[in-house]
């Protein structure tokens, strides 16, 4: 029976048949017009209420339901209200029912038309009190009351509430109301009080509530408790008297399980009621104060009772097999833990510890919901004083959850880590978080950055660590470091003059901002800090005032106006302090005076005018460093956290409590100075400025070229540090900031690297980049030799320091910078190494002897910077030498050539097509360059192979004018699964001899593509001087980006640019499996079958009829002639192609059928036929197309037969063996909520070419569970398992349980899969598309496993079709795919077994496609 | 409280939409549905059933609690007052009630009997609050309603009951 009208059903069917959104909305428009006309025909007279009296009851209901349906679809419905109200007013229940539902969906409380319905609703609410004796009628009144209550609750307009709340209250407390009415009136009242708080006076109403709590009916109690919770939330104290009542009910449920049968939910007594009871108790955190057992005063026994109840819940909640049962139990349990949290320290310690222990168990389970809630509740529990220690024990487990695939779980883990962080573990946790940040996805980065920043600040025992951490944050994830975070760094550095924090920060930032490529935020912080505290480091070698200016100013043209504004203030300060900066700064000011950006312009003009307008003292005063910042109670970071997480968040509570370290710091700071209101000023100075300075931004390149060579030299290899002598000394005197050591050393002569040496040094560095040993540096005193070798990601560098001087070199120290991307171990002559830990004196190197340093290292990430090495020593003559050098450790050191065959190369190359994966540069040779000839091209090839360590891929280059190569950059960094991360590069150079030009293209594929491009770059230059230039190119490898190559003319010309990085070329290793079937034309006939095929009108497009009258798919072949030849692998071709491979199918039944047909084809050498299905009707021998109607067996029986069929029958086929791990509940029923079958099939087939393994893993709902007695968790030949076809649910232990992605990572490598075809079971295209990116990542780490996404079939019934369409171009990430949908285009319905499964003919064609994907056919 | 309930199928078509708070106007409601769908549909079934607030129309600190059954997502948007697992159970109760009422419920039931689905929901959740969780009493209330509905129809004249739709599709009888 349907309550719905036929017209409505027709309308719905029409809408569902719409092919497009337009068609649907056109249909809706037509319907709306029709209904409008029916409601107001124009000629008929409307009733007083605006409804059309001539409509029948049936019509009115039908049209109103249509309106409701249209509304749900999302179309605006702005009429028909009169008819809705007419239905509500009707005396008939059926009309009222529709009317009220429509009312609550279509109208809102504030609608003026509502006032006209008040009387009707009121009348319905107060229909004659029920009298049990009146039987049927009273039921009806009841029902009408219910309708009105329900509608009132759903609408809850203010006017309605005022008009009716008294009635609702009355109904609730009335003794005559039925249970149904009571339930609804309680909730209705709750809704009313929520909309209009304080509608009810708590003191007056509490006794009524007490009365209601006596109610025996659990349904009513549940509603009443909802109401009570709502009321108590508003007027907590008024309802405190009800605690004993609530405890009593709870105790009845928990202790006595006093519950009607039907309120048992999976054996748990009404969990919802229990939850509500406990929630109520959570409102009274002081309820158990002074609870000492036995001391409870008479009348307070409920306190003991309550504690007993909570202990019982805590101790006796079992883990249940039923997910629903354990859900319900855990729901109560979590509520109880929340109650313990609410009680806080007044709660007995044993309960708190018990709760913590339980939660510890929960956060390590696999079930994601429990883990999620466990993490979230533990964060709350850890807030209680004294509980954090318990939580800290679980730190390791929490860190694992931080890497969970599920963002919800990750968030909770992050929160919990945040809460349990304190001074003891801060460094560990923060470092873990920072490490995780590198791989964390964008959705959580901002949150992480904020939290890391707060933790680092809160728990830094050494503020230098805090500064370092924030700098790391900026470099890893600069875009997510908001202004408040770096403002905070500035504040903290400014406010802590004690120790060497300010000097340290200045020096660190100087180093951080020195590379041309650094994040803009780094530039801002550096600008501010150097402006304030740069003077503290100005005496250090290479960090003088003008050096500070230069490192900052190199960023001028790439930063936005906001940063420029900061830079200008910094420049003004620098110019004020250092004479030599003034000529540097003046032109900047002069130029920016006309900036269209107001802020920039104003600052320039003001600073320029300042000196004329004020006295020198006043200027000094203005440019003096800023006073300390006012310490606000809540930092901007905490406010931001509050904004995103809300008041109740555990993390916010945590953040607002100052840590001990912070308090100490605050105390110290307070002693140092009194604070001033400066924060505002700073914020004002740093307002974002939207207008861009077009003039300046538009010509950065000119300026870049214009920089002098010295700047370049500093950027590259050796730091000249020419400024150390003379000038540095002068400065030391000028600024009276030096400490004692400085004064003592004033007499000493500082010696850096003289400028003349720089070209030679650069050359030495370059040579070393490409040769295994050589001299890195040499002058009259010291020779530094280097020997280095590399295997994969690891390297060994020996550095020798020889004393060429006539006297010993004293205090000889070497400090090697240890960047994040290199893991280093150093050994050396005693006291040689300066690890920065303490002030080591260094060693002495006697004349004509050597000190030695050996470095073992492993590269962990792409990088673009050679590590620096600083050598310092003193001579007897009293000179202090300081040589900043760089180790010749560049990206190419770790390159390994990769040899790809042409097919493989092209496949990779094509798969990487697309904008962001490609980098291209066209370069024209200078006019005087020699012509490009073949010899020239050979040299180009040589550069690629010898210079850049690429593997040349000659087969790809059809003409001498192209050169292609591939290489891998090995790192020792590991991904989540412990596999090394490798970075690969593809490059292609194409020459156009006529135009004398080259085009250089590289392709890259990597989620962190932009970062990788930034980090690693390969530079490739084409010039007749290549022999000479190769070393300097290698040198430039360390810089990345555009290569400036000095030619004889001393002009810089952009010669070429190549960038290519991507993490892990997928499939490099497996590509060797792919052999193009072209080796011998004679064998071709053996492997490939050419079938003549005729076009037939009876067949769909792209199909033809072969000689056996079997339809064959031919794809996009040209149909010009009536007959065409199609090419397929023969049976042997299949075997040869698949031999030695392990092919894994993962997916739903459509995938299983494809698997079955592949296995069947290999075994029977033919299509599966009708008789294979064991049909009762004797089938014709060549029957390929079996229709559902011909099949008299159900699926389950065929399912069993197919299992047997694939296996060995012991007589005829010794080549094939199969295992089947499967069970299905018998009789097999697919019910919505009992999907629980797991099925795996393993087939081994021996062929003359080798063994073929074909495996099917069932995946209906993105979940796969593997039995421990089956491969890959047990040997294929093990006997410890049930027989094929006899699988049952008992006696199995799952060795693996996870979604498709984790199956990829965990199971596939163990299965030694070579090819994987997967769909996500019943997943839709969105999920496939999302999954493609996970696949891409997997491919990157498992290049030996080829993965393909299988599309779903376009099912033949309309309901599911839209989400089954497949468009590989719309996948989020580019992966291989096999589109099975395209073959099915327009095929007749009779080619389907049923609505979802294709017949053997289609499966066969899928397998041809699949085989061709694995072994491409040579077309000539 | 429960701020809203959305049932949407695997391709994003809403099958039942009920807003208990804050969201007015078809356009805004549809944008909520789209947003909700985008978020839940990208999560594999192996993930947990909670998704934290990213539907601005409902305000901050809203949690989406959802379950995925075959072709349908049942999504409840709730505030911090609700028990996380309790709502999961509630969804289960709702689905079980539908399943009992329609004998193996499938998406088509929700399409062609949207009225009944609304009635059933109204017996479980009212104004954003849990009304009843006992399946028997939910079905009892529905049966009573239907009886009365039919009574009043009989009085009204010729019956306008129509054929039931027998076609049933689901993730498949056959798989």
UniProtKB/TrEMBL annotation, chain A:
Gene Ontology BP terms: protein transport
Compositional bias segments (type: Acidic residues): 722-732
UniProt main location, coarse: membrane
Key words of the record: Membrane, Protein transport, Transport
Localization (cell): Endomembrane system
UniProt domain Clathrin adaptor alpha/beta/gamma-adaptin appendage Ig-like subdomain: residue ranges: 766-884
Gene3D superfamilies: 2.60.40.1230, Leucine-rich Repeat Variant, TATA-Binding Protein
Pfam families linked: Adaptin_N (PF01602), Alpha_adaptin_C (PF02296), Alpha_adaptinC2 (PF02883)
GO cellular component annotations of the record: cytoplasm; endomembrane system
Keyword Membrane (UniProt): yes
Region feature (Disordered): 693-745
Full protein name: Clathrin adaptor alpha/beta/gamma-adaptin appendage Ig-like subdomain domain-containing protein
Lineage: Eukaryota, Sar, Stramenopiles, Ochrophyta, Bacillariophyta
Automatic annotation (TrEMBL), chain B:
Residue ranges of every copy of the AP complex mu/sigma subunit domain listed in the record: 1-147
SUPFAM superfamilies (UniProt xref): SNARE-like
UniProt keyword Membrane present: yes
Region spans: Disordered: 149-175
Subcellular location per the Swiss-Prot or TrEMBL entry: Cytoplasmic vesicle membrane; Golgi apparatus
Keywords: Cytoplasmic vesicle, Golgi apparatus, Membrane, Protein transport, Transport
Entry membrane topology: Peripheral membrane protein
One GO term (biological process): intracellular protein transport
PANTHER family linked: ADAPTOR COMPLEXES SMALL SUBUNIT FAMILY
Protein family according to the UniProt entry: Belongs to the adaptor complexes small subunit family.
Record's protein name: AP complex subunit sigma
Species of provenance: Cyclotella cryptica
């Amino acid at each position: 029976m349907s309550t719905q009208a036929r017209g409505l059903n027709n309308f719905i069917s029409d809408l569902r048949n719409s092919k497009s959104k337009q068609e649907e909305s056109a249909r809706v428009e037509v319907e709306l017009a029709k209904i409008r006309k029916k409601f107001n025909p124009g000629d008929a007279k409307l009733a007083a209420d605006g409804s059309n009296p001539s409509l029948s009851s049936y019509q009115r209901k039908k049209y109103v339901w249509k309106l409701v349906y249209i509304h749900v679809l999302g179309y605006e419905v702005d009429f028909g209200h009169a008819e809705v109200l007419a239905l509500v007013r009707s005396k008939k229940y059926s009309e009222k029912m529709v009317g009220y539902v429509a009312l609550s969906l279509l109208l809102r409380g504030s609608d003026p038309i509502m006032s006209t319905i008040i009387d009707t609703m009121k009348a319905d609410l107060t229909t004659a009190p029920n009298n049990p004796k009146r039987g049927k009628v009273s039921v009806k009144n009841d029902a009408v009351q219910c309708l009105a209550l329900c509608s009132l609750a759903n609408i809850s307009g203010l006017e309605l509430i005022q008009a009716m709340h008294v009635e609702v209250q009355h109904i609730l407390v009335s003794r005559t109301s039925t249970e149904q009415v009571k339930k609804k009136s309680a909730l209705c009242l709750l809704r009313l009080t929520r909309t209009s708080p304080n509608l009810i006076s708590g003191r007056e109403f509490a006794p009524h509530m007490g009365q209601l709590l006596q109610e025996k009916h659990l349904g009513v109690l549940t509603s009443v408790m909802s109401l009570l919770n709502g009321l108590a939330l508003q007027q907590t104290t008024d309802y405190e008297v009800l605690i004993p009542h609530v405890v009593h009910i709870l105790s009845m449920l928990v202790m006595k399980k006093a519950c009607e049968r039907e309120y048992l939910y999976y054996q748990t007594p009404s969990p919802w009621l229990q939850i509500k009871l406990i929630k109520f108790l959570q409102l009274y955190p002081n309820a158990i104060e002074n609870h000492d057992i036995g001391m409870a005063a008479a009348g307070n026994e409920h306190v003991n009772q309550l504690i007993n109840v909570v202990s019982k819940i805590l101790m006796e909640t079992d883990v249940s097999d039923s997910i629903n049962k354990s859900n319900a139990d855990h729901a109560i349990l979590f509520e109880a833990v929340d109650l313990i949290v609410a009680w806080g320290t007044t709660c007995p310690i044993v309960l708190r510890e018990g709760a913590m222990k339980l939660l510890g168990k929960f956060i390590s389970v696999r079930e994601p919901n429990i883990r999620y809630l466990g993490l979230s509740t533990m964060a709350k529990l850890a807030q209680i004083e004294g509980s954090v220690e318990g939580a800290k024990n679980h730190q390791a487990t929490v860190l694992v959850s931080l890497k969970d695939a599920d963002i919800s779980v990750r968030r909770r883990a992050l929160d919990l880590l945040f809460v349990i962080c304190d001074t003891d573990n801060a460094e560990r946790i923060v470092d873990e978080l920072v490490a995780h940040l590198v791989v964390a996805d964008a959705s959580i980065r901002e949150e992480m950055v904020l939290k890391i920043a707060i933790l680092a600040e809160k728990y830094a025992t050494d503020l230098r660590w805090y500064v370092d951490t924030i700098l790391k944050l900026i470099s890893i994830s600069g875009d997510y470091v908001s202004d408040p975070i770096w403002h905070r760094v500035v504040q903290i550095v400014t406010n802590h003059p004690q120790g060497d924090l300010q000097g340290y920060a200045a020096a660190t930032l100087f180093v951080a901002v020195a590379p041309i490529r650094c994040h803009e935020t780094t530039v801002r912080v550096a600008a501010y800090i150097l402006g304030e505290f740069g003077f503290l480091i100005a005496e250090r070698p290479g960090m003088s005032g003008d050096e500070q200016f230069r490192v900052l100013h190199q960023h001028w043209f790439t930063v936005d106006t906001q940063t420029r504004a900061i830079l200008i203030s910094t420049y003004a300060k620098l110019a004020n302090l250092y004479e030599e900066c003034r000529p540097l700064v003046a032109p900047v000011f002069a130029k920016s005076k006309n900036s269209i950006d107001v802020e920039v312009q104003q600052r320039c003009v003001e600073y320029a005018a300042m000196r004329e307008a004020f006295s020198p003292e006043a200027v000094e005063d203005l440019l003096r460093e800023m006073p300390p910042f006012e310490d606000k109670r809540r930092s901007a970071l905490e406010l931001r956290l509050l904004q995103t997480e809300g008041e109740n968040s555990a993390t916010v509570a945590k953040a607002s409590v100052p840590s001990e370290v912070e308090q100490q710091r605050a105390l110290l700071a307070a002693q140092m100075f009194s604070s001033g209101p400066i924060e505002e000023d700073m914020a004002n100075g740093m307002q974002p400025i939207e207008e861009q300075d077009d003039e300046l931004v538009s010509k950065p390149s000119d300026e870049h070229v214009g920089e002098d060579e010295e700047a370049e030299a500093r950027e590259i290899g050796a730091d000249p540090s020419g400024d150390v002598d003379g000038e540095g000394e002068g400065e030391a005197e000028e600024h009276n900031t030096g400490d004692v050591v400085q004064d003592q050393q004033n007499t000493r002569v500082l010696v850096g690297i003289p400028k003349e040496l720089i070209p030679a040094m650069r050359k030495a560095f370059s040579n070393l980049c490409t040769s295994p040993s050589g001299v890195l540096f040499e002058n009259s005193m010291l020779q530094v030799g280097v020997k280095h070798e590399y295997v994969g990601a690891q390297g060994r560098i020996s550095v020798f320091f020889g004393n060429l001087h006539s006297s010993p070199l004293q205090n000889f120290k070497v400090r090697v910078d240890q960047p994040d991307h290199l893991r280093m171990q150093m050994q050396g002559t005693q006291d040689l190494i300066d690890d920065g830990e303490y002030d080591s004196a260094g060693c002495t190197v006697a004349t004509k002897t050597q000190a030695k340093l050996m470095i073992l290292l492993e590269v962990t990430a792409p990088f673009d910077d050679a590590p620096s090495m600083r050598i310092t020593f003193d001579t007897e003559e009293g000179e202090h030498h300081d040589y900043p050098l760089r180790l010749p450790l560049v990206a190419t050191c770790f390159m390994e050539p990769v040899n790809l065959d042409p097919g493989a190369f092209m496949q990779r190359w094509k798969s990487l097509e697309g904008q962001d994966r490609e980098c291209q540069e066209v370069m024209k040779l200078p006019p005087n360059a020699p012509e490009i000839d073949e010899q020239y091209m050979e040299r180009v090839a040589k550069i690629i192979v010898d210079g850049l360590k690429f593997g040349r891929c000659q087969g790809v280059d059809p003409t001498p004018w192209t050169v292609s190569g591939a290489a891998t950059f090995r790192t020792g960094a590991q991904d989540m699964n412990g596999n090394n991360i490798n970075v690969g590069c593809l490059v292609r150079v194409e020459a156009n001899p006529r135009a004398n030009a080259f085009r250089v293209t590289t392709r890259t594929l990597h989620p962190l593509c932009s970062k990788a491009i930034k980090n690693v770059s390969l530079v490739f230059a084409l010039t007749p001087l290549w022999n000479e230039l190769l070393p300097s190119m290698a040198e430039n490898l360390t810089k990345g980006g555009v290569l400036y190559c000095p030619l004889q003319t001393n002009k810089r010309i952009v010669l070429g640019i190549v960038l290519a990085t991507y993490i892990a070329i997928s499939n490099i290793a497996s590509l060797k499996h792919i052999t193009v079937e072209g080796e011998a034309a004679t064998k071709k006939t053996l492997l490939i079958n050419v079938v003549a095929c005729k076009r037939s009108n009876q067949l769909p497009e792209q199909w033809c009829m072969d000689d056996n009258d079997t339809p064959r798919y031919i794809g996009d072949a040209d149909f010009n002639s009536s007959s065409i030849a199609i090419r397929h692998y023969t049976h042997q071709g299949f075997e040869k192609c698949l031999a030695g491979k392990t092919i894994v199918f993962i997916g739903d039944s459509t995938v299983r059928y494809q698997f079955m047909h592949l296995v069947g084809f290999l075994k029977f050498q033919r299509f599966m036929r009708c008789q294979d299905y064991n049909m009762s009707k004797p089938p014709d021998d060549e029957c390929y197309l079996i229709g559902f109607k011909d099949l008299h067996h159900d699926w389950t029986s065929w399912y069993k037969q197919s299992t047997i069929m694939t296996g060995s029958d012991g007589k005829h086929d010794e080549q094939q063996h199969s295992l089947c791990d499967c069970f299905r509940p018998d009789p097999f029923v697919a019910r919505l909520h009992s999907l629980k079958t797991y099925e795996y099939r393993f087939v081994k087939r021996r062929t003359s070419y080798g063994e073929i393994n074909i495996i099917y893993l069932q995946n209906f709902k993105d979940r796969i569970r593997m039995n421990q007695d089956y491969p890959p968790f047990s040997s294929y030949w093990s006997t410890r398992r049930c027989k094929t076809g006899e699988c049952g649910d008992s006696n199995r232990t799952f060795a693996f349980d996870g979604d498709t992605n984790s199956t990829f990572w965990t199971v596939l490598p163990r299965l030694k899969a070579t090819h994987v075809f997967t769909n996500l079971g019943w997943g839709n295209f969105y999920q496939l598309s999302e999954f493609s990116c996970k696949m891409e990542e997997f491919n990157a780490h498992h290049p030996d496993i080829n993965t393909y996404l299988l599309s779903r079939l376009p099912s033949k019934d309309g309901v599911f079709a839209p989400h089954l369409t497949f468009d590989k171009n719309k996948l989020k990430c580019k992966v291989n795919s096999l589109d099975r949908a395209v073959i099915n285009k327009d095929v007749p319905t009779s080619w389907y077994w049923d609505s979802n499964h294709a017949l053997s003919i289609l499966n066969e064609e899928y397998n041809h496609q699949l085989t061709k994907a694995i072994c491409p056919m040579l077309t000539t | 409280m429960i701020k809203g309930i959305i049932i949407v199928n695997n391709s994003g078509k809403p099958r039942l939409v009920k807003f208990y708070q804050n969201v007015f106007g078809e356009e805004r409601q549809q944008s909520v549905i789209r947003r909700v769908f985008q978020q839940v549909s990208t999560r594999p079934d192996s993930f947990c059933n909670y998704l934290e607030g990213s539907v601005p129309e409902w305000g901050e600190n809203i949690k989406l609690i959802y379950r995925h059954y075959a072709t349908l997502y049942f999504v409840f948007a709730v505030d911090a007052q609700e028990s996380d697992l309790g709502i999961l159970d509630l969804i289960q109760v709702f689905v079980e009630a539908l399943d009992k009422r329609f004998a193996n419920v499938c998406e088509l039931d929700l399409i062609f009997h949207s009225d009944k689905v609304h009635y059933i929901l109204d017996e479980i959740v009212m104004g954003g609050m849990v009304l009843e969780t006992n399946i028997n009493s939910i079905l009892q209330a529905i049966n009573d309603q239907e009886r009365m509905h039919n009574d009043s129809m009989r009085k009204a004249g010729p019956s306008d009951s129509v054929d039931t739709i027998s076609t049933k599709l689901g993730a498949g009888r056959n798989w």
